[in-house]
Specification:
5-stranded parallel sheet; 17% strand; disordered C terminus; 7-stranded mixed sheet; homodimer; 41% helix; globular
């Protein structure tokens, strides 16, 4: 079935320069991306947007085909667009045991192919994912509820960036040691003792990707590509609400693997029907040796406790915090934070939840502002940002699931609501449930039980504190205990910024300082920003760094005496 | 108490070249060592051996002093030399909570010092350990039962090599990312968006080293130095039978830390009295975030299951296997394997246990040899090697504890004993319990229950198989299921060697091929040989590789807008 070896495309040769640039970018940590984030036709071509939309529309109401995929039958449709219609797509059904067995049996030639070949195949998969960005954007929009532009950027090029970043780390780490070396130890008498040694990176075993509902590709690609490039087959278990973006990904990966002469079963889709719970079964399968998970703290903790046979990488939930001490650009601060809250209606793991503000006020270029003033002004900034319905619909998102709706209802009863969440009509999708952020005022001492929980969704709290000192203490304590994926501080004082940096180091959280312009705390750029950290409970891994890839493979060694004629003449 | 900052020695400047050479050596993987393995006076100085012995003798029967060490009182003496006398040394007593609290409170300035300073301090500690190699050698001999030369080499320079190797990986991994970077993203209109970013490696928390009885320094230094250099304080919990080598190490580390202006409590000795069991209590302390352990599979598995708050690195037990298919140097093969069994009376985690040999025989330059023939010839080679009592005492070791004696007694009852274990008198230590290896003949099919257990100590089995094919299958299955730290193969066929290499990759074990000269399967040279592998159950880590250090720290980031005048002119 597969073409002859000599006819196969050499994807490593094709992408070698890109891979080298990627590795350099992870080391330089400046701005770099090979995948344009603009969905402009001048970048992606005149007919590409229409083709992508047609490809997406073609999936609706039909079985999704994965030629040669293991298993039998189909799982019933589970996806409903948050913009108000069922996708009605069925997927191939494969039992957990079958999926793991098929993945495992595909491993041998993939291991023997070595890191260069594997990185080349991965880069080709990413190139084709990039070409499919419009199809994927529609799939992401109608599974996550993201507005189209965000679905395109975060679900397409930015996710591809994060995938390539993982490829770069995985490739570079496997090449830290030479493929072979001569060891030659001088002896007091006669020639040296000499051995020839071989070093082979070997994957840990079958990898499982348990993906999330809100960012199936952005959060999924790093684990998928890190495992694949380090020699492991990957079973992809999508969230029931967001299968299509990963099904498209699996289809592309399988096609490239086949062209390169490998078994397509190195990437398997393990979709599940309504009410099925296969993630736990897959994650504790004895042959599953790597698990990547993004989602709830409860299931993340369960995996860390129970998937003992595997290396487990989790991104869970946390209390994203903003400490406000002072500013010389109050309007910039308000506008920047309002956008951070509005984006995708607060359904990002990086959206700020807790704003710690001195009750008695903080200095600004517009005079002293109390916590009350700040809450009022932040809400006004939100109102202004969202005044135009078209623009609001393009910034906010549709509510992804009932869990978010329930938390939003619950949040109306805590503290003092300064701004209620309101509904916004989408011009093209009247049935979409799009909401604006709710902002409530709390007290640092009285309301600790409220703000030390995560309220995933468009819910944020302005929390009055005694002082910036108390704010920093609460930030350190809550982040260290409950975790955080982002933190921010605003201050005109270098001393306070330095204390905030020390607090962030102690709490184990990445920190953004004085963002008042076009960069937002919830944004994280591949190749420059680290996303998440094992240093606090919100995650057990960083996207991406060497620790994210080194546990996925071992370097095994063999050694034998060097040929005698050489070893005696050194 | 500590000297002024300007008077402090700059250990990084002093050792920078050594550190750079070390990193280069980990990458080249040829022969390299900065610490001479010869205990010759021409290397270490005329009076150094006598000074070292006097230092050791000075410890006997006295309290071991660690100035300023936390805790109160002393723990009673627990150490008895396997060469036949009690050491009678008491050590400072510190409760687990006290030890962890003291270590934790020393962390801040150590974190802020950065990787260069930390690596410099570690290199200075190693330099002083090297200067104390004779004192340490006597301490290792009289706690482990190793003969003096081996105690000197494995406990001194080779352990220091492994320590420096861990320093090199820890230092290099922390410097993979720049300390700061400018991110500058072009915009369609106006100047770029620009942020200045800082990247800071931060240790995970308090590290615990649970050391073993047989190689307290060789197996202990990698974790100790990897944790320390990545910013973590270390609590050293020695085995009750082998405290002194690590107490000397802790004393030297604390002195260097103090000279460098840091708290000595970055390295704490947590000795325990007879019958106390503090390792489990320390390992599950919520502030202990890293555990390194060498020892039994039972306690290693317990740690992996229960020390959930920590990153756990274990080296446990396994079934070290030799597959014999054919040879063109039968005498070389026998001599090499006999030495491997005799060294330290088989009490190495790397000593071969299972020899898989075709029952019907294998080809040699001396004709076909059956499994029976081979067992007889191997025993004859052992008899020849150990014929001279002086030489035998210098090669073998004293039995380290009753567990080994009990297994040796039990082994007389399994299979057919081809060579019983015998006692050897030590000229200088008449009370030493020195034993020669026992060799028994087993059958691959009938005796699987016997040879799929680990028999740590001077016990090895020649196991008759149907064929090399069966031998390789048993090797793969037993190593994959029960683990192995070493494996070896002898064959004149490139096909068989290639199959053995594939089997070793599948089993996840490092392989030695056709060793017939002066290199032995149980030897593992730092900077060139990987020791252990997370790819099989005998260990969860390799000494050393990037995976051994990357889990010990996180790189945390802060970012802020770049100054306006610069960001608009890029």
């Amino acid at each position: 079935m597969s073409p002859n070896a000599q006819d196969r495309p050499d994807f490593f040769v094709r992408h070698r320069e890109l891979l080298e640039q990627s590795v350099a970018a992870t080391q330089g940590r400046g701005y770099w991306t090979p995948y344009p984030e603009s969905p402009s036709t001048s970048v992606y071509g005149e007919r590409t947007p229409a083709h992508g939309e047609a490809a997406f529309t073609g999936h609706i109401g039909r079985p999704f085909e994965l030629p040669g995929h293991p298993g039998t039958g189909v799982v019933p449709a589970t996806e409903v667009s948050p913009y108000g219609f069922p996708l009605g797509i069925t997927y191939p059904r494969v039992a957990p045991d079958e999926a793991v067995a098929a993945a495992r049996s595909a491993t041998g030639p993939w291991r023997d192919a070595g890191p260069d070949t594997r990185a080349g195949v991965a880069a080709e998969i990413l190139a084709r994912l990039n070409a499919a960005s419009f199809e994927i954007a529609h799939a992401v929009q109608h599974t996550t509820g993201q507005a189209f532009i965000m679905a395109f950027q975060a679900g397409g090029p930015h996710a591809q960036d994060r995938g390539l970043e993982a490829v770069a780390y995985a490739w570079a780490e496997q090449k830290r040691h030479p493929a072979s070396a001569r060891w030659s130890k001088p002896q007091r008498k006669g020639g040296p003792l000499a051995l020839d040694k071989k070093f082979t990176p070997v994957g840990r075993g079958v990898a499982l990707l348990v993906a999330c509902n809100t960012f199936p590709t952005w959060n999924g690609y790093p684990g998928l590509f890190a495992s694949l490039v380090t020699g492991n087959p990957v079973v992809v278990k999508p969230h029931q609400g967001a299968v299509l973006p990963l099904a498209i990904t699996v289809r592309i990966a399988r096609a490239v693997l086949t062209e390169a002469g490998f078994s397509p079963d190195l990437v398997i889709l393990a979709a599940e029907g309504p009410g099925e719970r296969t993630a736990a079964e897959l994650a504790t399968h004895p042959d599953v040796r790597i698990v990547d998970f993004t989602g709830s703290t409860a299931f993340g903790d369960w995996l860390e406790t129970n998937a003992r046979q595997a290396q487990v990488y989790t991104e869970k939930a946390g209390l994203n915090t903003v400490v406000i001490d002072s500013t010389d650009d109050y309007q910039g601060l308000l506008g920047n934070l309002a956008f951070s809250l509005a984006l995708y209606s607060g359904q990002m793991c990086t959206t700020p939840q807790n704003f710690l503000v001195p009750r008695s006020g903080f200095a600004t270029d517009d005079g002293v502002k109390t916590a009350d003033d700040f809450a009022t002004d932040l809400c006004a900034a939100l109102d202004k940002l969202l005044a135009d319905p078209q623009r609001a619909a393009g910034t906010l998102g549709a509510i992804v699931n009932d869990g978010v709706r329930e938390r939003l209802a619950e949040a109306t009863a805590v503290g003092r609501t300064v701004r209620p969440s309101t509904s916004v009509a989408h011009p093209g999708h009247p049935a979409a449930d799009i909401r604006t952020p709710l902002v409530a005022l709390l007290d640092a001492d009285a309301d600790a039980e409220v703000y030390t929980r995560e309220w995933f969704g468009p819910v944020s709290f302005v929390i009055g504190t005694d002082s910036t000192e108390q704010s920093l203490r609460i930030f350190r304590d809550t982040a260290a205990r409950h975790g955080a994926l982002t933190a921010a501080v605003h201050s005109t004082s270098e001393n306070v910024l330095s204390e905030a940096e020390q607090s962030a180091l102690q709490a184990g959280v990445h920190l953004s300082e004085n963002l008042t312009g076009g960069v937002f705390v919830n944004q994280s750029a591949a190749f420059s920003d680290f996303h998440g950290s094992a240093a606090n409970p919100a995650a057990s891994a960083t996207l991406s760094d060497p620790a994210f890839v080194t546990g996925r493979f071992a370097t095994l060694q063999s050694r034998r005496p060097a040929p005698a004629e050489e070893s005696t003449h050194v």
